[in-house]
Specification:
48% helix; alpha/beta
Length: 124
């Protein structure tokens, strides 16, 4: 608990699927995660690679939604994290190659991985 008696929000590291699904749907777990981040009950961590992937996918497939994504990044308290080489090395030993960027960011940011397979599943 912090000095005011409030607990710190649990940090959750999101992948592009959760981010896009949460932005485009008003129902479901992905949207709920984004809402909990918006109101400060979760600390949203976005790997830099996820921000780039989401922006690229939206630009290529749903360009009309790109302003919504950019507004989300500006208005919701998110932490964009660039994993270190050490974070990536640790993640390589624990995850499939496609999951390394998310797990590396989760490790480095001390966050629970929240991806489309394991919606906000805590580490350990």
């Amino acid at each position: 608990m912090g000095p005011t008696g409030k607990t710190e929000p649990v940090a959750v590291c999101l992948d592009a699927d959760v981010l896009i699904a949460g932005l485009l749907s008003r129902t479901g777990a992905s949207h709920a995660i984004l809402i909990l981040g918006e109101i400060g009950l979760l600390g949203l961590v976005l790997p830099e690679a996820v921000v780039d992937e989401a922006r690229r996918n939206l630009t290529d497939k749903l360009s009309e939604t790109l302003p919504l994504f950019e507004e989300f990044l500006r208005s919701v308290p998110v932490r964009v994290y660039q994993p270190t080489a050490q974070d990536q090395e640790r993640a390589r030993n624990l995850a499939d190659q496609k999951d390394v960027p998310i797990l590396a960011a989760a490790i480095g940011a001390d966050a629970a991985p929240g991806d489309s397979q394991r919606e906000a599943l805590p580490l350990g």
